[in-house]
Amino acid sequence: MTASQQTARHLDAPLISLVEASALCKRGFTAIYPEVVSGNPLAADSVIRWVLNRPGLLAGDAVYSENEHIFYYAEAYRPYIQNRISGKLCMPIIDETIFFSDDTPHIHRSLECFYVGKSAWQDGIIERDRAFEITRECPAKVDLGKLFRASRVLYCFDNSTALIQEALLCGCPVVIIPDGTQSRQDYGNLESCIEWGIEGHRGEPVDVPSLRARYAEMKKDFHRQLLHMV
Amino acid sequence: MENGGAYFRSVIQPDIFESQSGAAAKGAGPERVSILKGVVRRLRQWWKRWQLQREERRNRYSLLRELITTDSRGILAERYHTHRSLTCFYVENTVWRNGVIDRSTAYEVTITPRTKLSDLVNLFRSSAVLYCFDPHSPIVQIALASGCAVVLVRVGGWQQRLKPADQSQHAPSDLQATPRLSAVCCSASPARDSV
After folding, report:
1. Which phi and psi (to 5°) does residue A29 adopt?
2. With a cut of 0.85, is the ipTM above it?
3. Domain boundaries, chain A
4. Which of A18, A37, B1, B13 is within CB 3.0–4.6 Å of A33 for a Cys-Cys bond?
5. 10 Å Cβ neighbour count for A69?
6. Which residues of A touch B83 (CB under 8 A)?
């Protein structure tokens, strides 16, 4: 792991400097770049490109080198990849000790939240003063689960965020405000759980057990996908 | 006994003992000075840290007061009933005290420069109680005005419980003005319980 300030403690991914990473790449190590990194800055002979969003949407190139092995994170991004695809790598990143449902009855949930994130605020959809804003800085991740368990709804302006699944696992219904980057079909197996647009909001409770089952399946798939990539 | 006393005197030898202890005291002089210097350095560090914390707290208070005065726009005056399922606590720079509340289940309220009054009000409207470890913070006023009960946690485990004033007794316009807001909070009869 390089060019970062922190790494997950439970993973075997130590932080190294760019110089060290470059030296390792010269010795034949494979570099894995996210889609927001342009080109091959470490000059590695073997490169894997992990497409975690639409290529070129946030940063980086829209088309990658022919020599790179392309892996995508979610089916939603697959149609936008113009290179030959080597496989899928969908790593489950949700901390289930924080994001779980405690069977709080739906009628006891009173808070309304919204998250703008990488997208932009759209006027006329919800009243900003009536809802609690979640930002990248506040609240802390450990408190997000508690907040979602008390929330009636999360209005999500960012169409591509892990917050959607985290809220659903806490039993908080999610209303996605379309920003043009995704369609409802892009959400795959989450499609039936989310509400698309404010007009589609019916306020129905989330079927958490089926979501958990799907998430467990996703974790199983990840091991297979990782072995394939290695 | 006499023999025993003679033995004691011979072993102790007061003159030798005094001269030895005097020499030891002279030898320990530089050590004592270095210990004192260390203590002074630590006291200075502690003083600087305390001043910094005080400054931060003042800034946060002024931010909250500013929020109340400039950003209220009638938000606090609105009254509607919601189900209160959250338990919150507010620590910031004050000292966390064990045994008051389960930190793993309660939501920690944090104030950042991006915090808006409406966020705090919406949060407290869904909260049953706020445990405030900083009894002088203006956040108490916001919580009470939002209908959320407050428990002030003080030194030594003392708790002071504040209930929000009966909302039906106050016209909405009464709550819009900040001086009145503090008056409403003061009128909430605090019941002091020792824990």
Report:
1. -70, 155
2. no
3. 18-89, 106-213
4. A37
5. 18
6. 107-110
